[in-house]
Amino acid sequence: MADPASTARAEQAARRALDRRARRITAAIAAGICAAVLLLDRVFPPPLPRAGADGALVVLAADGTPLRTYPSRDGVWRVPVRLDAVSPLYVQALVGYEDRAFWQHPGVNPLALARAGWQWARNGRVVSGGSTLTMQVARLLEPPAPGARRSLATKLRQAVRAMQIEARLGKREILELYLNRAPMGGMVEGVEMASRAYLGKPARELSAGEAALLAVLPQAPSRLRPDRAPAAARAARDKLLARMQASGAWDAATVADARIETIIAQPIRAHWLAPLAAERLRQQARPAGAARGAAQSAARDAAGAAAPAGSAARATTERDASGREVLRTTLDAGIQRHLEQLLLDRLGSLPAHVSIAALVVENATLAVRGYAGSADFGDASRAAHVDMVRAVRSPGSTLKPFLYALALDEGLIHSESLLIDAPQDFGGYAPGNFQAAFSGPVSVSEALQRSLNVPAVDLLDRLGPARFAGTLRNAGLRLRMPGGAEPNLSLILGGGGTTLEELVGAYTAFARGGIAGRPRFVPDAPVVETRLMSPGAAFIVREILENGGKPDRPFNLDTAGIAWKTGTSFGFRDAWAVAVTDAYTVGVWVGRPDGTPNPGHFGANTSAPLVRDLMLALPRAVGAGPDAAAAAASAADAARGAAPDPARTTAPGSALPGSAPPGALVQRGAPPGVVAADICWPGGLAASQTEPALCRERRRAWTLDGATPPTLPDRLRSGGWTETLWIDRAHQRRLRPDCLRGGADGATHANAAALASSAVAAATPAAPERIDIPRWPTLLDPWLAPERRAPEAAWPWADGCRPDAPQRTLHIEGLDPGATLRPAPGKTAAVLALRAVGARASVVWLLDDRVVASAPAAQTVSIAVAEPGPHRLAAIDAEGRFATLAFRWQDGAR
After folding, report:
1. Helix or strand or coil: residue 89?
2. Whole-angstrom Cα distance, residue 468 to residue 76?
3. How far is residue 453's CA from residue 631's CA, in Å, rounded to a whole number?
4. 3-state DSSP call for residue 824?
5. CA–CA distance, 240 with 220 (Å, rounded to integer)
6. Please, are residues 339 and 370 in contact by the beta-carbon 8 Å criterion?
7. How many CA atoms are closer than 13 Å to the CA of 23, on its beta-carbon side?
8. Hey, CA dihedral for 382, 383, 385, 387, is it positive or negative?
9. What's the rounded Cα separation, in Å, for the pair 587 and 507?
10. To 10 degrees, the CA torsion angle through 72, 77, 81, 83?
């Protein structure tokens, strides 16, 4: 028999062997299961989204405020957000309502599942789902088939996916997935987009009541939409608030305050800022994956002044901390918001189909802070989708400041040079003024302040249109001539087209020491700038525009420090206003995008008040930004009076050696070379260089580089600005050099020099005297009052000394001087039939300094008079001869 002890030991050994085999089999099975699970996990990973893979794009302001959101490829509106950018109240409400054990469980909450299963078995229907936030994320990433949302298989798949997600992501990352993908009604997903769409605020600013509202909304997005079902949304919100109070997460006071909040949600719509600017940059943007080499390419785009000034450097999208694809701009959200509201408010006063465009540029950095391509992006009747910031339109008179600045630099004028505002013909081109009136003698300051046309055309004719257009083109302001025509005199009155963007960029020169710049739309765009005028010319022209104080200026800016210029194109198609301060340059365009005339609306009455309101709302000073140093280098050049490279391109954020601090601007004091001096009319020279007898009017002028240039040459008469007279002062008579009064008996001497040197002439009481008197431009004769002329020029000729060939003069035929006219019975006006006798070529007729007719010399013209009171009639021919007379019109009541 076997030993019992041996048998027991053998059985124990057999059992141990079996146990070892079982453990090995179990381990193998467990390892197989784990391997299978890992394999399945690798083969069937959870569909975690890749950052930016959905094609959505957010265009941001400089401070990170979303300007415009572009939907994902599936048409969903979503603004990705980080957890730390969401109100903690929302996170508390969400976790407290959906998954209080979220921070502890591994993706699945067994207790919640057991409770849900027991309730299902007891009631025969689903009472609570038992889903965790992670399981809800799994459902959002992998939506179940229609009708299978609450099936057991769906719940098991979501549980597995939840554990897969938990194995890959941290709790904060999982929560961020929910924050960005939770359904919020319609095509809106995520708390940030819902907060902005319904409540008009970012998610970080949610109150307790708003946080509770958005936390409960994903439970039934269609049924609880606050814009459509505010009562249902309020009931669901209050239920969550009660649960938060019961759990002790929120105290009674917080819950009570939240219950008081009214459910007021605006209908879902895109609340965009700068939509046209955003679309422009989106179309130009490089994708985030193509950022390599962008800096070099941008430098190539910007290098050289020949590059189109209106083409902004291409933007590059990037991934932000939340993984979303974003495009950062230089726009200031606050300025943009105020700009758009101001334009919307102004639309009510404009006719149908009229649009408005505006651009705000920060002078120190050339950064665009405000951009409105149209006034109301939602109004298709006003062609709201047409970006008028980039449209080529006639600039009207807005180019005149550049003309006067160039003339100053050329030494042709100073600020008080005498100009002619009278009818002139420039080779068949006979411009008139906007108000159809002429003022005669005007200074440069007056001509620019009042935007007079004829003095500007006269000056451009002397400078040359091609040269003027070339100078502007080199500075980034291109003038497009119709039909490829060559630049001509009409340029200065709007004969060539340009854009609001280019115009504003050029106007920055008046705040940047004469250096114009290309507006920058993105932070990494290079600073492209070009010397347009000297610092002195920029200072003088800005002083004229800012401190004019003329009666026809459209608004009073006594303390605002704003230099401004308006313009109106032919036929009232375009109304412009551009304004400059130390900090900003602002341009506004008003008109119809299709080019239809807009009668009664011009720069001074439509665009200028809008520019004023906008300028007064902007900050007076600009803080130094990260990209201010590049522009500061230009300011430093201007302050030193040094010219920069013709088209300098500076990388943002870099400063040149010896440059001013970031954000610095040229000081408003007169730069070197600008000096105030007394000058004399009509000659235009400095008073210190002019004989007292030749100085009929003394004026204070800004001069540049010590130059006081004389008045521009007379087009109709050669010689300088003085005229020699021989006079008999005792008898106040004029003499001729070959016919001089020698004594009381009237003897005549043929040799003036001999008489002047003789002792007899020295002893006679009527000794002839040679004098020099000032001579005014010929075309100004009709406007010169007697006190403006030298009195000797009006003395009569001495007997026997009148010129043999009398000077040809004009005579007005058809009306007697000093006549008083009355209407015929039954009439309220009179029509005068007039002719200019002795005229040559064409004759311009003026009634009270306003052009009323123009006709060939021998032609009779008809001029209507209806306004009672005194009137002044003038006729001027092409050679400067003129005739004037005064008369009175008396209505029938007298």
Report:
1. helix
2. 52
3. 34
4. coil
5. 14
6. yes
7. 5
8. negative
9. 9
10. -110
Contacts of 174 (CB under 8 A, 6+ apart): 133, 134, 137, 165, 166
**pLDDT value at position 624?**
38
Q: Rounded CA gap, 438 and 441, in Å? A: 9
Residue 18 tokens read as 């079996």
Q: Do residues 682 and 721 touch, judged by C-beta distance below 8 A? A: yes
Q: How far is CA 799 from the centre of its chain?
A: 69
- In whole angstroms, give the CA distance from residue 578 to residue 56: 37
Using the 8-state DSSP alphabet, how is residue 329 labeled? -
Distances (CA, A) of 95 to 179, 224, 243, 277: 11, 19, 12, 39
- Which pLDDT belongs to residue 641? 39
Report which of 525, 526, 641, 527 is spatially closest to residue 517, judged by C-alpha positions: 527
**505-531: b or e for each residue (b if 16 or more CB lie within 10 Å)?**
bbbbbbbbbbbbbbbbbbbbbbbbbbb
Residues written for the chain: 894
Tell me the two tokens of residue 326: 């974003």
Are 367 and 361 in contact, with CB atoms under 8 Å apart? Answer: yes
Q: Taking the CA atoms of the chain, what radius of gyration do you get in angstroms?
A: 42
CB atoms within 10 A of CB 856: 12
DSSP state letter for 449: H
Please name the residue that has the structure tokens 């006979």.
430
Distance of CA 143 to the CA centre of its chain: 47
* Number of other residues whose CB lies within 10 A of the CB of residue 637: 26
Spatial strand order of the sheet with 733-735 comes to 733-735, 722-728, 769-774
Handedness of CA 650, 654, 659, 663 (dihedral sign): positive
Give helix 208-216 / helix 88-98 axis angle, nearest 10°: 40
Could you give the CA distance from residue 488 to residue 390 in angstroms, rounded to a whole number? Answer: 24
Residues 6+ apart with CB under 8 A from 345: none
CA distance 769 to 557: 53
Note the pLDDT tens digit of each residue in 167-195: 889 999 999 999 999 999 888 989 998 99
Structure tokens at 831: 């029509």
How many angstroms separate the CA atoms of 370 and 586, rounded? 9
The pLDDT of residue 594 is above 50: yes
**What is the DSSP annotation of 595-657?**
----TT--IIIIIHHHHHHHHHHS-SS-PPPTTHHHHHHHHHHHHHT----TTEEE-TT---T
* Token pair for 625: 């930004």
User: How many angstroms separate the CA atoms of 441 and 417, rounded?
Assistant: 10
Six token digits for residue 394: 């006639």
pLDDT at residue 749 in the model = 41
52 pLDDT tier (thresholds 50, 70, 90): low
What pTM, to 2 d.p., does this model score? 0.78
C-alpha 854/C-alpha 264 separation (Å) is: 67
**Contact at 8 Å (CB) between 334 and 340?**
no
Strand, helix or coil at 346? Answer: helix
Which tens digits make up the pLDDT trace of 377-418? 878 888 888 999 999 999 999 999 999 999 999 999 999 999
Mean local confidence (pLDDT), 334-358? 92
Structure tokens at 887: 């008369």
Q: Annotated catalytic sites, by residue?
A: 98, 397
3-state percent breakdown (helix, strand, coil) of the chain, nearest 5: 35, 20, 45
Closest by CA position to 478, among listed 559, 393, 573, 356: 393
The DSSP line for 103-170 is TTSSS--HHHHHHHHHHHHHHSS-S-----HHHHHHHHHSPPPTT-TTSHHHHHHHHHHHHHHHHHS-
> Taking the C-alpha atoms of 188, 189, 190 and 193 in order, what is their torsion angle to the nearest 10 degrees?
-20
Q: Which two tokens stand for residue 197?
A: 């769409």
> Rounded mean pLDDT of 734-742?
71
H-helix or E-strand containing 865? strand 861-865
What is the spatial distance between Cα 565 and Cα 558, in angstroms, rounded to a whole number? 16
